[in-house]
Amino acid sequence: MADALLPNGISIAYDDLGPATGTPLVLVHGHPFDRTMWAPQLAALHDEFRVIAPDLRGYGGSTVAPGTTPFAAFAHDIEALLDRLGVHEFVLGGLSMGGQIAMECVRLFGERIVGLVLADTSPAAETDEGRTWRRELAERLLREGMKGYADEVLHRMVAPHSAPEVQEHVHRMMCATDPEGAAAALRGRAERPDYRSLLARFMAPALVVVGAEDTYTPVDEARAMHAALPHATLRVIDGAAHLPNLERPDDFNAALRAFLSAR
Fold this sequence. Notes:
GO molecular function: hydrolase activity
Strand content: 15-25%
Largest sheet: 8 strands, mixed
Organism: Streptomyces boluensis
Number of domains: 1
Domain AB hydrolase-1: 24-249
Keywords: Hydrolase
Pfam family, one: Abhydrolase_1
C-alpha cells in the first residue's frame, strides 16, 4: 500500500504490485467499496502483470471530499496518479460505478487506454427517476450511516449462496465507507453522461464481464454493451451476481488473464 498526494490536494491510497515492465492493468472499484475488492485479482495476477488499484476519493484510505464528486474528478485523480507513477499507456478496468468512471476516462484521455475491461456496469445516462433516487439515498446515508443500506443491498451485490467470507468482506467494505464520500459520489453519479456513442468509437480491445445473476446490470445490458464495442469479448460468470470478481474469482481471473495475454 502507498499514498500519493496529487497536485489538486487529494491524497490517493493505492496498491501497485507486479513487474515494472509491460503494460499495467489499472482497476477501479465500485460503490460503496474500496480497492480491497480487487484483492483476488492482485493476488492472482501480480506475478505476471503489473496491477494498480487505487481507492477513489471518498473511499478507503483516500481523501474524503464532501459535496458532489463528478465522474470527471474521479477520472482526473486516476490520470494524475498514473502520471505520478510514470504510467502513460495502460489497460483500464472497472466494475459497476468503477466501470462508468473508466468510461469517463475514455472520454477524457482515451488515447492512453490500450484495453478496457467493463464489469457489471452500464453506459447509459441516469434516468430522471434514478437521479432522484441517488440524491435521496445520498441524504439518507448522511442521516443514518452506511449499515442499514449495506444490510439491504448485500444480497443484490453478492448472491445469497456466495461464500460467507465473501459476504462478510462486501458488507465490511460498505459499512466502512465514509457517508460523506459515498454521498458525494452518488450526487456525481446522478449527473453522469451517456457513454454509448463513446464506446462505439473505442477501437482498442475490450472485455465485458457480468455475473449471470446480476440484477443491477443484467446480462442483457452487458450483451448490448458488448455489441456496441467494435472489438469486444463477452464473458458471463455463472453463479455470481454484481461482484463476480469476488464471488467467482477463479472464473473472473481466467477471463482477465486471457484478455491481457491476447493483447
